[in-house]
Design brief:
- Helix content is 67%, strand content 5%.
- It is mostly helical.
- The protein has 2 domains: 1-196, SecY subunit domain (Preprotein translocase SecY subunit), CATH 1.10.3370.10; 207-274 and 335-451, SecY subunit domain (Preprotein translocase SecY subunit, Orthogonal Bundle).
- A 3-stranded antiparallel β-sheet has the order 4-1-5. A two-stranded antiparallel sheet has the order 2-3.
Length: 451
C-alpha cells in the first residue's frame, strides 16, 4: 500500500503527466455529461416511462453498450463513436480492394493523413445514414407512447444534424485525448462507455445474490474469482506474441558500423483484436432481421435456434465465425510478403531462412499456427457471458465476463498504464510494478545487441 501511494505521488509530481491525465479526465467527463443530454423535440418524462434500458438487446444493445447508454437515453451522443469505427473499418478494407488506397497505405505519414481525411468524410456520411435510422427507431417507439412533440420533418432534421455533430465532436475529443491526453482517445471513450454500466451491474448482482432465491454470497465470491481468471486469460490473449528473430548484416559507412544486431518481429497470437467478435455478432443478428420481415419464418426451428443466444447451436456457429473472421482480419492487417520485402530492402534476414519468398512463406506458416489457438481462445472469451448466464448470473453483470466489453477494457487499461509507466521511467522513477514492465497491445520489436 505504501508503494502504491508513493507511485501515485510520483505520477502527480510529473507536471506533463499530471496535465495529460487532468485533460483526459475533463474530456471524458464532458462526454459522459453529453450522453445524458436528450435530443430536442422529445418529452423526457414520457420517453423515460416508455423506454426500457434493460430491454436493449442484439445490435441495438451492442450500439448502446459502445455509446455508454446514450443510445437508450436518446442523447445527443446516442450513436457514440460507432460510425467512426465503421468508417475506419471500411477504409481499411478499401486498402486491400482498391489500388489507390493500397498506395496511400505505403506512402507513410502523408498517406496516413489522406486516409484519415477520407475516414472523416465517410464518418459524416455513415453518421447521417445511421441518424436517419435512429429517427425511424424513435418514430416507431413514439407511435405507442407519443413522446415526440416536434413536427416530424423538423424532428428528422434536428436528429440528423445533432447526432452527426455529436459523433464528430466525440471523434474530435478522442483525437484530442490521443494528442494531448493519456492513452488512445477513441479506445478510451469506448471503454468509458462500457465501464459506466459496471457499478449498476455489480449492485444488481449483489442484490440478486442477497435475495432469498439468489443462493447467497458464496456464489457471488465464486463469480468474482472466475472473473479474475477470465481477466488474466484476456491479458495473456492481448499480450501474447511469437517473436521471430531477425539478423541484420553489418555495414561499414565511413568510420561507423551499422547493422550486426538481432531484432525480433513480434507476431501476436490475436492480431485481429475484437474485430472478429464484432463481425460475427453482426452476422448473427441477420436471422433476427429475417424473422421480423416475415412472421411465418419465426416458427422455423433454424431461426429459433439462431435467435436464442443461449442455445448450443447458436454458440457453435458464433464461435466458428469468430475463428473464421480472426484468420480473415489477420490476413488483412498482416502481409507476410510486405514484411519479407521490407526485410530484404533493409538487409535483414531470418536465420536459416532464405530472403524473399521463403521468408514470406515462413512468416505465413508461423502466423497460421499461432492464429489458431488465439482464435479459439478468443471464441471462448466471446461465449463466456453465455456460460455465466447458465449459472444464473444477472444479464447486465454477465456481459463483463467476456466478449467485446472485457477485451476492450483490458486492452485500453494496459495501453494507458504502459504510457504512464513510460513517463515514470523517463524521469528515473520506479515503474508501476516491482518486477517486469507493463506491455500494451502494440509491442515494438525488441533489439538485442550481439557482442
Amino acid at each position: 500500500m505504501k508503494q502504491f501511494i508513493q507511485t501515485l505521488k510520483n505520477i502527480w509530481s510529473i507536471e506533463d503527466l499530471r496535465k495529460r491525465i487532468i485533460y483526459s479526465l475533463g474530456l471524458i467527463l464532458l462526454y459522459r455529461f453529453g450522453s445524458y443530454v436528450m435530443l430536442p423535440g422529445i418529452d423526457a418524462g414520457i420517453y423515460n416511462q416508455a423506454a426500457n434500458v434493460d430491454s436493449q438487446s442484439g445490435l441495438l444493445g451492442l450500439i448502446n453498450l459502445f455509446a455508454g447508454g446514450g443510445f437508450s437515453r436518446a442523447s445527443i451522443f446516442a450513436l457514440g463513436i460507432m460510425p467512426y469505427i465503421s468508417a475506419s473499418i471500411a477504409i481499411q478494407l478499401l486498402g486491400i480492394a482498391v489500388p489507390y488506397f493500397a498506395r496511400l497505405q505505403k506512402e507513410g505519414e502523408s498517406g496516413r493523413r489522406k486516409m484519415n481525411q477520407y475516414t472523416r468524410y465517410l464518418t459524416v456520411i455513415v453518421t447521417a445514414l445511421q441518424a436517419s435510422g435512429y429517427y425511424a427507431y424513435l418514430n416507431t417507439m413514439s407511435k405507442n407512447a407519443d413522446f415526440i412533440v416536434a413536427p416530424q420533418g423538423l424532428f428528422w432534421f434536428i436528429t440528423v444534424v445533432i447526432l452527426t455533430a455529436g459523433t464528430l465532436f466525440t471523434m474530435w475529443m478522442g483525437e484530442r485525448i490521443t494528442d494531448k491526453g493519456i492513452g488512445n482517445g477513441i479506445s478510451m471513450i469506448i471503454m468509458v462507455g462500457i465501464i459506466a454500466g459496471l457499478p449498476a451491474a455489480l449492485v444488481n448482482e449483489i442484490t440478486h445474490r442477497g435475495a432469498a432465491s439468489g443462493g447467497g454470497f458464496i456464489p457471488f465470491l465464486l463469480e468474482i474469482a472466475f472473473l479474475i481468471v477470465v481477466i488474466m486469460g484476456c491479458i495473456l490473449l492481448v499480450q501474447g506474441t511469437r517473436r521471430i528473430p531477425v539478423q541484420y548484416a553489418k555495414r561499414v559507412v565511413g568510420s561507423r558500423q551499422y547493422g550486426g544486431v538481432r531484432q525480433y518481429i513480434p507476431l501476436k497470437i490475436n492480431a485481429a483484436g475484437v474485430m472478429p467478435i464484432i463481425f460475427a455478432q453482426a452476422l448473427m443478428f441477420i436471422p433476427g432481421l429475417f424473422a421480423q420481415i416475415n412472421e411465418d419464418w419465426q416458427s422455423s426451428p433454424v431461426l429459433v435456434m439462431l435467435n436464442d443466444f443461449q442455445s448450443l447451436g447458436y454458440n457453435l456457429i458464433y464461435g466458428f465465425l469468430i475463428v473464421l473472421f480472426t484468420y480473415f482480419y489477420t490476413a488483412i492487417i498482416i502481409n507476410p510478403s510486405q514484411i519479407a520485402d521490407d526485410l530484404k530492402k533493409n538487409g535483414g534476414f531470418i536465420p536459416g531462412i532464405k530472403p524473399g519468398k521463403k521468408t514470406s512463406e515462413f512468416i505465413d506458416n508461423v502466423l497460421s499456427r499461432i492464429t489458431l489457438p488465439g482464435s479459439i481462445f478468443l471464441a471462448l472469451v466471446a461465449i463466456s457471458p453465455v456460460l455465466t448466464r447458465a449459472f444464473h448470473v444477472d444479464p447486465s453483470f454477465a456481459r463483463f465476463f467476456g466478449g467485446t466489453s472485457l477485451l476492450i477494457m483490458v486492452g485500453v487499461i494496459l495501453d494507458t498504464l504502459q504510457q504512464i509507466e513510460s513517463h515514470l521511467l523517463m524521469r528515473h522513477y520506479d515503474g508501476l510494478m516491482k518486477s517486469g514492465r507493463i506491455k500494451g497491445r502494440t509491442n515494438a520489436p525488441v533489439s538485442i545487441q550481439q557482442g
